[in-house]
Amino acid sequence: MHIGVLGTGTVGRTLAQALVDRGHEVRMGSRAAGNEKAVAWAGQAGPLASEGSFADAAAFGDLSINATAGAASLEALESVGAELLAGKVLIDVANPLQFSEGGPPTLSVCNDDSLGESIQRAFPEARVVKALNTMTAAVMVQPDLVPGAHTVFICGDAMDAKAQVTGLLEEFGWPRAAILDLGDITAARGMEMYLPLWLRIWGATGTAVLNIELRVAE
Amino acid sequence: MHIGVLGTGTVGRTLAQALVDRGHEVRMGSRAAGNEKAVAWAGQAGPLASEGSFADAAAFGDLSINATAGAASLEALESVGAELLAGKVLIDVANPLQFSEGGPPTLSVCNDDSLGESIQRAFPEARVVKALNTMTAAVMVQPDLVPGAHTVFICGDAMDAKAQVTGLLEEFGWPRAAILDLGDITAARGMEMYLPLWLRIWGATGTAVLNIELRVAE
User: Fold this and answer.
1) pLDDT band at A102 (very low <50, low <70, confident <90, very high)
2) Does the predicted TM-score (pTM) go above 0.95?
3) 3 state SS of B20
4) Architecture in CATH for domain B2-205
5) Shortest CB distance from A193 goes to which of B197, B207, B218?
6) Closest Cα to residue A198, out of B137, B149, B153?
């Protein structure tokens, strides 16, 4: 598949590499073509990898992944424009974290809204699926870094888009039984509001290589 | 131990009964002594059970549990007054859920504050421990309703208070290894902000008898 990965940070590079490793053609997008990190990544990732602007990446992709910093995601997607996103699956893995002096990070949107919903509202013709935002990048693409079974959540309004994302998650090594569909895109609220708990668990355990397993009464 | 349970809802009654069952003397508190549900509970729960106002319950307890509705918790505790809470452990199991017409419940406080912190600020001499708010009442006191290992979080500023709460959790059947101390009371933000995710998991799985197990890389 042709996949656009928007964002050149750890999450973007980790996802882009994992996709190339599985045979997908990936274009990494950033604010402007020629971004140093994107060029470096594409240079070492082989012939399936390329880089360009956010719009270049989204135009290239049959599916795109928003791996930009949550606070910058809407601006990045606006630079792509609605037309290039229309009808395509857009996986939103970002968290709207904002970092302030002194205190712990907070969310720039939460409670009665979410980044996932904001993106879906801004681009109503994109088929937005929230996924993978509840863990560190390495675990997203290599779930067996965390011992035992554990859970990845997805949500979105389009069932066929969620089916496509489920397929990608399986390529990353997620067993079908570990993938829980939480329903429509409003579930992005819960998935993003989990972040403050995740950050405290990281603090308490001393590692970000963690996840939660959902356990339900029979 | 003498324990005051503030609140007559499902959570309060479940906790009160579990404590009586383990030999504690419990006074259930409500807005005014003689509350119908509290009288009914105390009447069937035997000689270790009694009921009264919120202040009666807190005065009775060497330790108290806030099991009131989150939106009403500060008012309930104000009716108790700082003096009766000073120096005592106060376990806050409430969630600041507010229910609106049409939409999903939201939190009345979150992101840069929490109910747990609000209570600790309002009653600085109480030793507030947030615990058990991340699951349904039945699971709080009978963790084996959920199969396998799963996690209960606690947080608070006073280590000795958390040790005491850990002991109570063990009485309820929580193995020591399942109890994760997330640090000071500001971790109540994460514990409370998990609720929207928990509600969506309930919706997706069809049962509230669920919990999460924390899995961490070795």
Assistant:
1) confident
2) yes
3) helix
4) 3-Layer(aba) Sandwich (3.40)
5) B197
6) B153
